[in-house]
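Need tokens for this chain, all 192 residues.
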Amino acid sequence: MPKKTGLYFGTFNPIHIGHCVIAQHMLEFTDLEEIWFVVTPHNPHKKKNTLLDDYQRLHMVQLAIDDEVNMKVSNMEFGLPQPSYTAKSLAHATEKWPDREFCLIMGADNLQTFHKWQNYEWMLENHHIYVYPRINMDGGKLKDHPNVTLTDAPIIQMASTDIRKAIKAGKNVSFMLAPRVWECLLTGNFYR
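Here are the structure tokens for all 192 residues:
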């Protein structure tokens, strides 16, 4: 039987404890057997020049989840055309790892706009989607689709954008990040 694998896509610029809490919740409280953090080189909705180098972000995700047996970091999108589109990445993953059943992990905010994503109908029909809650967002009209599972993951009001701004302003945000990620940011003088 294929291993049920949740793909958690993101720029992770930087990865913070909110990302890790959601991933751990998905592992512990759903039927997902493993989580892959897929580091996106270029999200079509974000400016590339605001991102740290792809491999620096990949390294930070590895630092954050290093001790977790059922979590891994993936650079699968690094060799695909940019900007990165989830449907293409899912098709690539399904072909490359046929021993896995890939599912999407996303916030209710993304599900609410999912109908605007490239090839969303194909993704919805062929892949299960696990949705974590966001304040004042219920997931929209797709929340009742049979391949969508709304989870009761904790609502995390934390954003990488806010963390970057705080670091630039010289604030200590160490409790928002895994200790090794915080050390990496300090050593590399990132976001200052």
